[in-house]
Amino acid sequence: MISIYQFFGFVLAFTVSLLSTPFVIKFAKKFGFVDHPNHRKVHKNPKPLIGGLSIVLGATAGILYLKPFYNYLVPVMAGGAIILILGMIDDKYDLKPKWKILGQLIAASIVVFSGVKINFFIIPFTGERIELGIFSYIIAIIWIIAITNAINLIDGLDGLSAGISAIALSSILVLSIINEQMFVISITVILIGSILGFLPYNFYPSKIFLGDTGALFLGYCIAVISILGLYKSVTIFSLGLPIIALAVPIFDTIFAIIRRFLNKQKISAADRAHLHHKLLDMGFSHRATVLIIYGIGASFGVSAILFTRATLWLSIIFMIALLILFQLLAEIIGLIGNHKPLLNTINKILHFRAPLKDKNN
């Protein structure tokens, strides 16, 4: 359970984030950290960026109060500092993707080579332990970079990225409470408090954007925390827990890569075909779109928690069902353009069976 000290840490992080945001807004405007509208963006007027700085201030206050002990806290914070600086530079000067990836690679490498990685997993049924060796480093680095960018890619509407991050962290919090991961509980509680303190200024109509400063930082934190907190019992299927909890940003990113590949575009090319764009195109309002995606994120977060209580076979069925569900959602909304393999297959099956039914009658 959450201790009284962790609760006070939450309150402190919330308060510092809430009270510091107006000052961050003034700072952003004064020094030119401003996002200007274009054909891809939803907002019509320039908005201050680096809202993530408020979250960092809140989280820092919470950490100084709780003083959570962890062997790898220094390298984790060093990586976070690099991500924060990278985000601020990008918000100011709009870095090329290769430089952003390089910065993320450096940050991820500092954390992973300090010891934050998955060394092995266990094969279900047989109980055989598979040592990952050098792949433990590769998998962890890829995971950190992927989640960092996934959170950043969904940051397209007021309050969307911050809210989804809070929902995902809430799922991780419950899972870490179940596994009695005290350090993860402390850090997660602090981050949730910081995000909630920032959201009143970021939710539609927003006064400030999260910016790459915040989106990259939250993505990095979630990626590292998920490695620390979700793998007390490392089986193949427990590897799916963070994927389920972070289903919205992960699958939106995967479908963006597939979509751009099929359209013969660069993977790093920006487009207006993400989940939030498609919901807006369907006629949902800005606020309704964000709330719908919150609902989807919360549903998958609850699913991740239920997943831990299921039997092995039920977990397999559950995972397959979730993959099919998200594929159907993607095809119906149009996240991969006009490519609809699953819907076309279902349509062929239905048309194939219809004549047989008529013939027998």
What features would you describe in this structure?
A hairpin with a 6-residue loop joins strand 3 and strand 4 (129-131). Residues 356-361 have low confidence and may be disordered. The strands form two sheets. Strands 1-2 form a two-stranded antiparallel sheet. With 361 residues, it is mostly helical. The protein has one domain (4-360). The protein has 14 helices and four strands.
Write the topology of this structure.
Elements: H1 4-30, E1 34-35, E2 47-48, H2 52-66, H3 73-93, H4 97-114, E3 120-122, E4 129-131, H5 135-153, H6 160-178, H7 182-202, H8 211-229, H9 241-245, H10 247-262, H11 275-281, H12 286-307, H13 312-333, H14 341-360
Antiparallel strand pairs: 1-2, 3-4
Q: How many structurally independent domains?
A: 1
Shape: globular
Proportion of residues in helical segments: 55-70%
Instruction: Provide the low-confidence segments as ranges.
Output: 356-361
Question: End-to-end span in angstroms?
Answer: 62 Å
Structural class determined from secondary elements: mainly alpha
Main β-sheet, in a few words?
2 strands, antiparallel
**What is the count of DSSP helices, taking H or I runs of 4+ residues?**
14
Lateral strand order in the biggest sheet: 1-2
Instruction: Tell me how many strands there are.
Output: 4
Core attributes:
361 residues; two-stranded antiparallel ribbon; 14 helices
Briefly say what this structure is:
By secondary structure, the protein is mainly α.
